[in-house]
Amino acid sequence: MDRFLEANLHALGAREPGLRARLAAAPSRPPRYRFVRARSGELIPALAAPSGALRPLHSLVDPVREGQRLISTVKEAGFLVFFGLGGGFALRAALEREDIQHVLVIDYDIQSIVELLASKSYLALWEDLRLHILVDPKPEQLEGYILQHYQPVLYRGIQVIPLRVRIDGDPQQFSAAGEGINAAIQGISGDYSVQAHFGERWFSNILRNLLRLKPEPDPLPSLNHVALCAAGPSLDMQLPGLARKRRDCFLIATDTSLPSVLYAGLVPDAVVSIDAQHISYYHFMQGLPGHIPLYLDLASPPVVASRTRNPRFFSGGHPLTRYVARQWRYLPLVDTSGGNVTYAALSLADCLGAEQVELYGADFAYPLGHSYARGTYLYAFFDARQTRLAPLETLWSAFLYRSPELTRIPRGDAWYYETPTLSRYRRLLEEKTAFLRSRVIPVEGLGAPLHIRPRQAGSLRSSKGRPFSASLPARDFLGVYRKNVSGLPPFAGTVQAYLQGLSQEQGRILNTLLPLAATIQHRSPLLRTGELIAVLRDRALANIDAVLGS
Questions:
Q1: Which has the closest alpha carbon to 414: 370, 452, 375, 376?
Q2: What is the pLDDT of residue 380?
Q3: Which one of 442, 462, 483 terminates a domain?
Q4: Which secondary-structure segment (H or E) carries 102?
Q5: Between the N and C ends of the chain, which has fewer C-beta atoms within 10 Å?
Q6: How far apart, in whole angstroms, are the C-alpha atoms of residue 248 and residue 255?
Q7: pLDDT by residue (tens digit) across 281-322?
Q8: Which of 165, 190, 215 is the last residue of a domain?
Q9: DSSP assignment string, 197-263
Q10: Lowest mean pLDDT among 59-73, 376-390, 521-535
């Protein structure tokens, strides 16, 4: 037995020295496993119950064939997560398939892993760089691992393969592991769905907006007290109070709230927009005073930037905008992960150093069945489309009740509707407040109450960074970027080998293209990874050439 353990630890240590040290230091104790022979001659680990009964982890007839049958059910998943190491039979079958690109093994009770490694050779598994193992991980560690390593566009699907008998031995740990993995997958799936829809539009918008960037970055304002207007119905009742203190604050309006703020006779100091859809153009149909800075995600539609003489771009979540900010031209880095413009505007205010931010119209609900503050673009939109058979009230009702998951929630003498999406937006903003330097104060309204989190101890004041000038004209930078995209090598081997074979700069370039790759994969789901990389490279070059030729 010792010869197997020594060989397994030696091979594992070349890749996972920390795990090897933990395994070597694991204290001895009465064995948890006993080992029996299958008819095929393979050694099978079996959990020993206190009564002495044995529960084999694999088939006692032919565990190799059992593992092959199990893996044959995997169709569209290139990233597999195994709950339980066991004898490694299904793992071996998975690694025999070229389309399976990443295999993660999760197991608990480090002493029992030592027992397995002392029973047989696992060298063929450790030699495959696609295989990774985590022993006794915490749920948050698993969630972080999946978020870091799983890229749907490269690995396609992800699938958990449980070793049932092994799970029964530690049900609580494996249940917690499943919850951590599911939390990560839900977040990734949501991001991927958005990327599949907007990936090419974002890429094209960024390239075109690059030509609008000024050589020298605009000076960033120095903020103290900020009033931030969202477009919830409560804004109507809150605007008179805001008007009385207007001179004492820096007023930021979200794009949706802009018409309402202007209609009330207030002129904001800045407007924020992040929507990649051309519908955001409607927010500016009533005009925007030319001197007002319009803060835009660099991935916003160029037609929106054309509505102002003073566009100021920032870098949101798209990897290409982050690349631009890091490699070429300073852009404020603004967290847009909350999925809505109020979250982004709050992040911008904090980025600019605001000491205090008052939130107006941040309902994240439909108070008394109302959707938006008066004056927002939907009022003009519906007013122009109403008929005798479809009056204004009908159009608003259809808009409100389009969601099948409206929940009516009482609030004092009033009530509001809430949807899962609005509830998620509110929860994300509440969580964000714990990590802001700014003190956030929600102004009382009729929507869902906002529960501001205590700020994390030790928070530092926001740093705006030191703006730097672009070292190249925009077209020259795009030319360099085009050369780098063109220089991406063709895909070969496994995803992990391909990524490891890229230089640091090539890895950054590929990362800037992944949202575009999601759109391509969504439209052409039968493309293999190598074909996808080739199409991605050509599509990106075509977009760049279109901008350079304009």
A1: 370
A2: 67
A3: 442
A4: strand 102-107
A5: C
A6: 22
A7: 456 656 676 788 899 999 998 888 887 888 899 998 899 999
A8: 190
A9: HHHHHHHHHHHHHHTTS-SSPPPPP--SEEEEE--STTHHHHHHHHHHTGGGSEEEEETTTHHHHHH
A10: 376-390
* Same-domain pairing of 303 and 155: no
pLDDT per residue over 508-544, tens digit each? 999 999 999 999 999 998 898 999 999 999 999 999 9
Q: What is the pLDDT of residues 154-174, one digit of tens each?
A: 988 899 999 999 999 899 999
What is the extent of the structural domain holding 142? 2-190
Co-location of 120 and 202 in the same domain = no
Other Cβ atoms less than 10 A from the Cβ of 219: the count is: 8
- Asked if the structure places residue 447 within a domain, the reply is no
- What's the mean pLDDT in 495-504? 90
Residue 460's pLDDT is what? Answer: 47
Residue 177: inside a domain: yes
**Considering Cα of 254, then 256, then 257, then 259, what sign does the dihedral take?**
positive
Tokens of 466: 């030191």
Q: Is residue 111 part of a domain?
A: yes
Same domain, 402 and 260: yes
Instruction: Compute the half-sphere exposure of residue 539: CA atoms within 13 Å on the CB side of its CA.
Output: 21
Give the neighbor-by-neighbor strand order of the sheet with 414-418: 366-367, 414-418, 407-411
On whether both 87 and 76 belong to a single domain, the answer is yes
Instruction: State the chain's mean pLDDT as an integer.
Output: 88
Q: Are residues 297 and 409 in the same domain?
A: yes
Q: What is the 3-state secondary structure (H, E, C) of 407-461?
A: EEEEECCEEEEECHHHHHHHHHHHHHHCCCCCEEEECCCCCCCCCCCCCCCCCCC
Distances (CA, A) of 48 to 35, 53, 56, 166, 167: 10, 6, 9, 11, 14
pLDDT at 113 over 50: yes
Number of domains in the chain: 3
pTM score of the predicted model:
0.81
Q: What is the C-alpha separation between 208 and 298, in angstroms, rounded? A: 9
Kindly state the helix (H) or strand (E) to which residue 73 belongs, with its residue range: none
Is residue 35 located within the same domain as residue 157?
yes
pLDDT at 444 over 80: yes
In a domain, 182, yes or no: yes
> What HEC string does 256-319 produce?
CCHHHHHHCCCCCCEEEECCCCHHHHHHHCCCCCCCCCEEEECCCCHHHHCCCCCEEEEECCCH
393 and 496 both lie in a single domain:
no
Q: Are residues 81 and 59 in the same domain?
A: yes
